[in-house]
Design goal:
Elements lengths: L2 E7 L27 H8 L9 E5 L3 H10 L6 E5 L5 H15 L4 E6 L3 E2 L2 H16 L3 E6 L9 E5 L11 E8 L3 H9 L3 E9 L1 H11 L1 H12 L2 E3 L2 E3 L2 H5 L6 H6 L5 E5 L4 E2 L4 H7 L8 E9 L5 E12 L4 E5 L4 E5 L6 H9 L11 E4 L2 E9 L2 E8 L8 E2 L3 E9 L2 E5 L2 E5 L4 E4 L5 E4 L6 E9 L8 E2 L10
Parallel strand pairs: 1-2, 1-4, 2-3, 3-11, 6-12, 14-15, 15-16
Antiparallel strand pairs: 4-9, 5-13, 6-9, 7-8, 7-9, 8-12, 10-11, 16-17, 18-19, 19-20, 20-27, 21-28, 22-25, 22-27, 23-24, 23-26
Helix pairs in contact: 3-6, 3-7, 6-7
Length: about 475
């Protein structure tokens, strides 16, 4: 039986700010590893047991998803673009509708793509063991041993007699989503396990559940799916019907209410590192119980996490803290209060800054642009253009640009002229002149771009062709 993995990639990861931002969130980050969490998830199911993954993500993340999957040669069956973040319930329903249209006999394996599973072989075995129950029309939840009373998780209790249905699959007596701390402590003592958020389901079964639980949600998602349109390699879900949906959790809507849920153990080294504090607990520590990542130094401090992606971060005489440093933001917090970082991000979002949304580096389908310096009337960017890629043909009404090649070779189109620039060569583009930057080489092209003018907003980019029309640069 074919299994279609469904990657839920719509989250913004606010509790991992400032590394995670809304437009470059946690699932695309590497966190000191060779692969991002999305890539690790994709390779977990890059196996003959599974079909190509179906990804559901926010439309702003589409090029990140495509680029990262392409980098590991794990192409998606499709990438569904949600115009609005409306929670896991609409995302899973949209995926079920897609599977019913393209491979209706397949089972859908719902997988959040910001989890860690250390034993891939055991994961495959657990999924295979659950197939018979899912094929029989049950919603199979994968449960993991609850090792602490954490209110961030859902809690599952198998039936009192613990009767097995098929293999290790058991009926569920109770499911409680994200209880408070005191309740979580009680549930742990009563033998509840954590809900991993991974499910194996027949798409027809889950669609029927939606029609019973929330007909308005089902109707809106169905309408939005039917009004989809293709955009390059993506499927855009219609905006208007999705805008009518209130954010809804799959666990609240379906798992808490349905009487068709069973649970099977997931014994594969599963972890959901949901905050900096949880990341600290999961990481190897030095002799002073510190976790030090990046350019950091610690003296006379214990039980702390120091993570620096940029500047040297030095800590003296402080215990039980987390210091997270980017090139444009620094977070300092008690290591025991990192679950509150999401609330801090809400405060940042209410102000005038955009640092809850963007890093200084902005990723594009052609590469990336990192802002180095800005001031009144000027901005300096470092552009990295991937081999064979190009920025769209464009002009600006209010700014001029100066490009200096620091690595690689650039093919420049400026007005009616076309020419090559090599390292340490430069060119000037006056305002109003059509221009384009292309990397014809086999190594990344690095260019220092100096913008100057009375207005430097991203909306002063007038494109002359429909090439990556949603690019910011």
């Amino acid at each position: 039986m074919e299994i279609c993995p469904v990657f839920l990639s719509g989250g913004s990861g606010p509790r991992f700010w400032p590394v995670s931002r809304a437009l470059y969130p946690r699932q695309f980050q590497q966190f000191g590893a060779d692969l991002s969490l999305l890539q690790d998830t994709a390779l977990r199911v890059h196996n003959p047991l599974f079909g190509s993954p179906l990804v559901v993500c926010h439309h702003e993340h589409r090029f990140l998803v495509a680029t990262q999957l392409d980098a590991i040669e794990c192409p998606a069956a499709d990438i569904l673009l949600e115009p609005h973040n409306r929670g896991t319930a609409p995302a899973i329903l949209l995926a079920a509708l897609w599977i019913m249209e393209h491979c209706p006999t397949a089972l859908m394996l719902v997988m959040p793509c910001d989890h860690v599973v250390s034993d891939t072989e055991a994961f495959h075995s657990n999924v295979v063991d659950a197939c018979a129950s899912a094929a029989a029309g049950q919603i199979v939840a994968f449960g993991v041993d609850a090792i602490a009373p954490l209110p961030e998780f859902g809690y599952i209790k198998p039936t009192k007699n613990a009767k097995k249905i098929r293999g290790a699959v058991r009926q569920i007596e109770t499911f409680i989503e994200k209880p408070d701390q005191q309740t979580a402590e009680t549930l742990i003592n009563e033998g509840y396990c954590w809900n991993s958020g991974i499910y194996l389901i027949k798409p027809s079964v889950i669609i029927a559940e939606y029609t019973r639980r929330d007909e308005a949600l089902h109707a809106a998602c169905t309408q939005a799916f039917e009004q989809q349109h293709r955009d390059l390699d993506f499927t855009r879900i219609a905006d208007a019907p999705m805008a009518t949906i209130e954010p809804t959790s799959f666990n609240r809507l379906i798992i808490e209410q349905s009487n068709n849920i069973v649970v099977t153990p997931l014994n594969a080294g599963w972890r959901n590192t949901h905050s900096w504090g949880a990341a600290y607990k999961d990481s190897p520590k030095d002799s002073n119980s510190n976790v030090i990542e990046g350019d950091a130094i610690v003296y006379n401090s214990r039980n702390s996490l120091i993570h620096s992606d940029s500047v040297l971060s030095a800590v003296i005489g402080l215990d039980d803290i987390a210091v997270i440093a980017n090139d444009d933001a620094v977070l300092v917090t008690d290591i025991r209060q990192t679950d509150g970082v999401g609330d801090l991000v809400d405060l940042i979002a209410s102000g005038a800054t955009t640092k809850h949304l963007l890093h200084s580096t902005r990723y594009q389908p052609w590469g990336s642009a990192r802002m180095i310096l800005s001031g009144e009337g000027f901005r300096v960017n470092e552009l990295t253009v991937n081999p064979g890629a190009q920025i769209s043909l464009q002009h600006h009404d209010h700014r001029a640009e100066h490009w200096i090649v620091v690595e690689g070779t650039a093919n420049i189109r400026r007005g009616d002229d076309e020419f090559l620039l090599k390292e340490n060569e430069s060119t000037y583009i006056p305002s109003g002149i059509l221009h384009q930057l292309e990397n014809p080489g086999r190594i990344p092209l690095r260019v220092i771009e100096v913008q100057s003018g009375s207005y430097l907003g991203d909306d002063d980019v007038i494109r002359q062709e429909n090439y990556n029309e949603q690019q910011a640069f």
